[in-house]
Amino acid sequence: MQIPEPTQTTIKAIVEHYEDNQGDAFRAHLGGSLIGRPCDRELWYSFRWCTDTKHSGQLLRLFQTGHLAEERFIADLRSIGIKVFETDPATGKQFRVTACRGHFGGSFDGVGLGFIEAPKTWHLIEMKTHNEKSFKQLVKVGVKEAKPEHYIQMQSYMYLAEPKLTRAFYIAVNKNTDELYGERIRLDPEAGKGIIDRADAIIASDRPLQKIHEDPSWYQCKFCNHHGVCHGEEAPIVNCRTCMHSTPIDDGEWHCVRHDMEIPRAVQKTGCELHLYNPYLLEQFAEPVDSGEYWIRYRLKSTGEEFVTGTDRGQFSSHEIKAVEDKSLLTDEKLNCLKDQFDGTIEGSK
Hints:
The chain is built from 12 helices and 14 strands.
């Protein structure tokens, strides 16, 4: 007879361990593993750290399964005489590429020489795990059609690699059956340049780019991490990258015009008490109607009432805008009432 399951179990504890130790959700750069996604606005929101994404323990464990498979892939390749380098001999670290003034980049799994199909050609190696359905589609139509994000990732890495790589070997496994699939990919320089140009446009833009769809129930939108900011009335997370005073500069760094300083990454994640939202980030529920050097007046789209954001008395701070779920409460008339209710600072704003 099965023992009844208690509230807290060993399995639940394992899952919670993954969730409690998932680390920093924000990536300093726009990654090559993301650039193949079809929505420019999603990528802009990710680069600007608009949403704090927390994954379930089950999903985090699934990510780890993919990493654990890499060691076996490498052993398999070496077992048939392929020379595989997991790290760059010049640095001793994982192979990396960068572009767009250091704000775009990524790491690839390795390079290899001695593939039976072209034994004298160096190949970038990309390793992936698939479920049954995904693997069958991959075998049927190939990586470019079945997994365009993976194809674009490889194209960007080959294009940026020094010395340039003209071939990639994509090796994948069916997690249900352990069946292997391999495909050689040819560098398309025109596609590579187009990918980097797209990344550069996303990074350089001071406002969100075009949505993939205006309908919030669109299948690619409703599962997006940024759905609440893009289609709802959720305000982005308060940090330096959502502030109107910050700008990406050379060497992957950011500059604050208000403090006239380069912003350390640790500071970027929290921002400062003078944070002022980039007004384009509130466009789902409010439109700017007036501004000064350190304040912006908005009109709520739902009611036509107005409010001011800033750090002076009589103004809503960015933290307060984030904390108020019902954005119709963000009005000049309700400001003092809200602050009195929460002892001068709206709850959740600190």
